[in-house]
Amino acid sequence: MKWITREHPKIDRIACPWLIKKFIDPGAEIIYAPFNEVLLKAEQLSATPFDIPGVEHTHYGDDCTFDYFIKKYNITDAGVLAMAPIVRGADTDHHELSVHAPGLWAISAGLAHNFNDDNELLEKGMLIYDALYSWATHLQNVKHTQQPFESLLLNALVRIIKSQGGQEGQIPGWAVELKEMIQDHIDTNITLTELSRDLDINRSYLSREFSRHFDNMSFGEYIRKQRIEKAISLMADVKLSLTDIAYLTGFSDQSHFTRIFKKHTRQSPSAYRKKISKK
Q1: How far apart (Å, rounded) are the C-alpha atoms in residues 255 and 171?
Q2: What is the mean pLDDT of residues 207-211?
Q3: DSSP letter for each residue of 83-99
């Protein structure tokens, strides 16, 4: 059976082919095409389209396409179910859904950067999801820092970093620097892992302390709020289409942008733009 989706895959459009080939249709042929040609080619090739707006196999609510395939084909494999929140978190920028989501995003983004050919990218991506499935099935309780002294060193590091955070009530220097870094990179898929590396601060500590200095929001919530605020500031520029604004504010596609925009403003981007144009 043939399956078709839009070109330049990163998360869902590699995770779903992996799921299809492993659990649904072992002989599946995966086809990538430009976004505006997917439905036409699907009809011409008798292929099933997925992960584009308006088709059956796509995002629903907060779920990504990977979730829909699991529900549609009643996949109950424990490893796949453990992978689902990781894929969903990485694909929808809801990194708070799983501590592993930022890592999957980072690997996927790097893979897409290194390989321009979509079929070659899929081939390499299948290996990534094979590895993630093996971890989810067999290795979830295995830690890299198995030795007691390693855990003691990590705990000591966290205490040292916390002691550098300043007096109670003061905003620590890293929080000020972090806010500036987020503003500078709001149009990219920046992750907490990348920021913790750039700040040279333990990621677990940064994740735990983040909400204290950023309006009681998680990292994902704060990033989405900043992106929507930037999108609103761009709405008055009539030269920019809504698709342009989506990409300029770091959203992977316009449907994702529309969904998050409505969640924050209770209006679609097009309705909001019409409203401000009348003022």
Answers
A1: 36
A2: 73
A3: HHHHHHHHHHT-GGG-T
- Tokens 């590091």 belong to residue: 157
Contact 191, 106 (CB under 8 A): yes
Superfamily of domain 221-277: Homeodomain-like (1.10.10.60)
Residues forming a β-bridge with 33: 6
Per-residue pLDDT, averaged over 137-158, amounts to 60
Between 102 and 246, the higher pLDDT residue:
102
Query: Can you give the pLDDT at residue 192?
Result: 66
Dist CA 253 CA 118 (whole Å): 18
Q: What counts of helices (H) and strands (E) characterise the chain? A: 14, 3
How far is Cα 193 from Cα 244, in angstroms, rounded to an integer?
27
Phi-psi region of 253 (alpha: psi -120 to 50; beta: other; left: phi over 0): beta
Backbone angles phi, psi at 93, to 5 degrees: 65, 20
Q: Is 219 exposed, middle or buried (0-12, 13-18, 19+ CB in 10 A)?
A: buried
Please give the single-letter amino acid code of residue 78: A
Q: At what angle do helices 203-213 and 173-184 cross, to 10 degrees?
A: 90
Of the candidates 62, 111, 115, 110, the one whose C-alpha atom is nearest the C-alpha of residue 89 is 62
* Number of residues that make up the chain: 279
Which tokens go with 176? Answer: 């000020």
Q: Please tell me whether the overall predicted TM-score, pTM, comes out greater than 0.85 for this model.
A: no
Between CA 194 and CA 145 the distance in angstroms is: 21
By the 10 Å C-beta count (0-12 exposed, 13-18 middle, 19+ buried), 260 is classed as buried
Asked whether 157 and 202 are in contact (CB, 8 A), the reply is: yes
Which sequence spans correspond to the domains of the chain?
Answer: 2-139, 221-277
Q: Which two tokens stand for residue 168?
A: 């109670």
